[in-house]
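Notes to self, Sugar ABC transporter substrate-binding protein:
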Amino acid sequence: MWKKRFAAVMTTVVAAGAVAACSSGDKEPNSASSEGANGAKAPVTVRFHAQNVTFDKTMMAPVIAKFEEKNPGIKIDYVGMTEPTSDEVTKKIDLLAASGEPLDVFLLADARSYSQRAANGMLEPLNSFIEKEGFKFTDEYKTDTLLDGKYYALPGTFNQWFVIMNKNHLDEAGLKVPTIDWTWDDYLDYAKKMTKGEGASKRYGTYYHSWADFFLLGMWNQPGKNDIVWSDGSLNMDHPGVRKSLEIRQRSEMVDKSAIPYADAISQKLAYRPLYFNQNVSMMAMGSWMIGEVGGTDQFPSTFKTVFAPMPRNEKSDPAGHAMSSSNYLAIASTSKHKEEAYKFMRFFSTEGLSIMQKYMTSWKKEDSGKLLDSIIQSTKNPENIDKESLLYVLNNTKPVTLPPALPYQAEVYKVYQEEVEKLLLGQQDIDKSIAAAKERLQKLVNANKK
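result:
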């Protein structure tokens, strides 16, 4: 049923978006190795698609050079995608796949996107490659990508979630850098105290991005049952963290007015990087990919010091120091004509390749994390604007927790939930109605997907 639904959706996408698809004029040949003029085999070209803001060509250049040096028969064609959000990148990859664009390796931003595309047959299973190489997945990587007994991706970056804070705004409000003892109520007080001004020039204390994750803030610090639908299809909507998530958003956006309203975020298609680096927002919850960015990049210069705080807990009585961790996912298109070569690149990239970049923490267990962190900080334009003391405090005092394996229809789960929370944030219904409506719709969705 899921595959039929996906096929129908993609047929519509292709019909509506054919004009937007990449022109054939800039495509690289993606056929199997051919004989050259002197009878030698021409190198195989593997295409790698990822969001340009995540991996730009400058960052990719030394990685590709090293890989091609080790694998002289394989060339890498990096396609940096310019869509502004990861959701739009994923939609573009779907469109390219449906329109017959040659795809080899591509990056998926989260577990929802990964599980959905694994379920619809878009991704090549990796078990045979892993068995041939002979390594144990969980000994090699921090993030387990197993779905129904198969691996469809290798994890790339490893993202530990924390709070980034503008040190100037913190000092101006007379606030201390928080420790693991702080709660979401403390967070909201900080946001209120750092909010300043009115109208177009208003500076907000915080901002919640449009990702579905930001509707579940009160679940990010839960080491157990931390998702709204569990792996066995049972609903977890009665978890107190769900209600807390809605209370956080409602209070800060609609009562304290210390967070950018959701209506503005979606109508203006706001992006979190410009908001933070332009100092329109004082703090926000983000992942550890931001370590290398808050020190300044060509696109977003750093003009102030950033300090780091742990993810808040829900109540004083809750265990402290837990925070969600996540990865992005490197996958091979099931339609790729160069699966073996694509796997070789993906395996290299997910291990020593990402470390060469000196930009992100990785999911590879064999990396030297301390050395890599120092390299990431020193490679920024203004390393002095990264408060290493608070960063190390957060990393050393945080226990990473992960979500359960994603359901094949995980994207639909979050879509249903998000639609009901949106009604709350747009003033159309209260918290009780939002939770009740989401529970009813989610149960119907689970029932419809039972095998």
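- The mean pLDDT is 89.
- The domain at 160-325+399-448 is CATH 3.40.190.10 (D-Maltodextrin-Binding Protein; domain 2).
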